Amino acid sequence: MGVDDTALLRKITWRIVPFVGILYMICILDRVNIGSVHHSLRESLHLSEAAFGQAVGVFFLGYCLMEIPSNLMMKKSSPSIWLSRIMVSWGILTIGLVFVSDLAGLLVVRVLLGMAEAGFFPGIMFFFMFWFSRKERTVRIAGVAIFGSIANVVGGIITYLILTYLEGVLGMRGWQWVFVIEGVPSVIAGVLVWFLLPDYPETTKWLTSEEKLHILNKLKRDNDPAPSVGDPDTSIANEDINTAVAESKGVSLLLAKSSNSKKISWREVRDTLLNGQNILFSLILFCRTAPAYMLSFFMPAIIHEFGFDPVLSNLLTAPVQAVAICVQWAVAYNCDRTGKHAIHLIILGFLDIIGWEVLAYSLTTKSLPFQYATLTFVTATTSSIVSPALSWLTAGLRTSTSAATGTAMAISVANVGGYVGPLLMSYSMEWYGTYAYGIASAGGLMAFFVVGVIVIYVMQRTHKKEYGGYIEVKEDTGEHFAH
Q1: pTM value?
Q2: Alpha-carbon dihedral 288, 289, 290, 295, rounded to 10 degrees
Q3: DSSP classification of residue 307
Q4: Count of beta carbons in the 10 Å neighbourhood of residue 220
Q5: How far apart are CA 33 and CA 155, in angstroms?
Q6: What is the rounded distance in angstroms from the CA atom of residue 374 to the CA atom of residue 362?
Q7: What DSSP string runs through 86-107?
Q8: Following DSSP, what letter does each residue of 148-206 receive, concatenated?
Q9: Of 48, 119, 217, 325, whose CB is crowded by the most CB atoms within 10 A?
Q10: ∠ CA(425), CA(419), CA(382), 5° rounding?
Q11: How far is the C-alpha of 425 from the C-alpha of 41, rounded, in Å?
Q12: What does the alpha-carbon distance between residue 321 and residue 155 come to, in Å, rounded to a whole number?
């Protein structure tokens, strides 16, 4: 009896996506909590607006430095081991922020925190390639990303409660309690990942031999540029499947078919890093990420500039993020249904440009409904870009070495925006007394994003790349996504 692909996909999705999503939610809580304590942390450590921006952004210098090595280490070890290491180490360092007493200490811990967390999100993208085909990834990436948006909703509420009720308890400031309460779950989750995260289909106990072979065949066909009917290289031979199932040798057969999986092809690493479309994709992701982190770290401060109390501003981020979750899911679903990633990105990019510029203008008005509605709009468009963009990114990565390198490189370059974005916002406030100029610069960055997407789209159409991928691997090492 054949395997029902729809039922199997549903089974894998429910086993993996919610668990990974919760891990990502914890990650986002720890990453952006410094923005939630913007006012109280600055006051306690006597930081200028510019110094605070440096403390926020320096995290990404450590992050970008270790991104590619981290992803390659995950390939050499396993997802469960490496992601566990990442989570435990960043959780410990988050708790360590409690003990900083000046700008120097804050900068050091933030750099170390970035180095510790490096590789987590690209590691998730890499991990998904072991389980899902190109056309299946967008909605599932969105499912994980939505947990990140949920973290922003929950984080605002949690921070509001902590700053309101735990200020001064046991002699600790409210911002210190934020780091403790949001750091401990990372350590606990990191331990659980070691035992609960399924590394690869062929090593997973809750899949039958037939299901394991079905997944491997599907991923191999998905990674072949132009599979032909009856081509013995596009799937495991039927007699091998029958033999494997009959003799319960599914796992050994899968491992034999992916014997090169732990090896790193340094030529592929070099070719992926030097690929022109890869570099361009990384740059346009940077143009999107800088504005995104302006929202992640400064949304409470922006709402405070609207005229609300600093503590209440954290609570008011929740409705904004809730709307963004709904829009993000709708975009991802339609993108997966149509397969038109670039078109979605171009439309969203244009809307985002308008949103950012209108938001900058709104700060010159005194209309709270207009300001809040505009912030909600731009948050929805900005957050909805990530899923189709990352699905488009991973679509052309045909081996695990190029995937480990390509995803890490793109996200590493993109996260330089996590340094630039907060600085633009901080210096805008320091020099001009408003965030309007930093917000306006986000619209300019998004204009470059749209132009870049159009250029890549035209290049792909010109070269008639069948799957819409942007990396063209020059050497086939025989390595496919078994693991």
Answers
A1: 0.76
A2: 100
A3: T
A4: 19
A5: 7
A6: 8
A7: HHHHHHHHHHHGGG--SHHHHH
A8: HHHHHHHHHHHHHHHHHHSTTGGG--HHHHHHHHHHHHHHHHHHHHHHH----GGG-TT
A9: 119
A10: 65
A11: 17
A12: 10
Q: Which of 173, 148, 166 is nearest to 39 (CA)?
A: 173
Maximum Cα–Cα distance across the chain: 74
Q: Encoding tokens for residue 269?
A: 């690493």
DSSP 382-412: HHHTHHHHHHHHHTT--SHHHHHHHHHHHHH
- The residue behind tokens 């081996």 is 399
Q: Whole-angstrom Cα distance, residue 334 to residue 205?
A: 33
Q: Look at the chain and count its residues.
A: 483
Helix (H) or strand (E) holding 309: none
The token pair that represents 259 in the structure block: 């014997």
- φ and ψ of 309, to 5 deg: -60, 140
Residues 6+ apart with CB under 8 A from 92: 183, 187
Structure tokens at 61: 């210098």
Distance CA 303, CA 385 (A): 23
In whole angstroms, give the CA distance from residue 41 to residue 43.
5
The one-digit pLDDT tens for each residue of the chain (483 residues) are: 578 889 999 999 999 999 999 999 999 988 888 988 888 999 999 999 889 989 998 998 888 888 878 877 887 888 999 999 999 999 999 999 999 999 999 999 999 999 999 889 888 888 998 899 878 887 888 889 889 888 888 888 898 899 989 998 999 999 999 999 999 999 999 999 999 999 999 889 999 999 999 998 888 887 654 333 333 333 444 444 344 333 434 433 333 344 335 566 667 777 777 777 778 888 999 999 999 999 988 998 999 999 888 888 888 988 998 999 899 889 988 887 888 888 999 999 999 999 999 999 999 888 899 999 999 999 999 999 988 887 777 666 556 667 667 777 788 888 888 889 989 999 999 899 999 999 999 999 999 999 999 998 888 778 654 433 444 334 334 444 333
Spatial distance between the Cα atoms of 186 and 179, rounded to a whole number of angstroms: 11
383 and 310 in contact (C-beta within 8 Å)? no
Which residue has 């029902």 as its token pair? 4
> In angstroms, rounded to a whole number, what is the distance separating the alpha carbons of residues 159 and 300?
11
Distance (Å, rounded) from C-alpha 321 to C-alpha 156?
Answer: 10
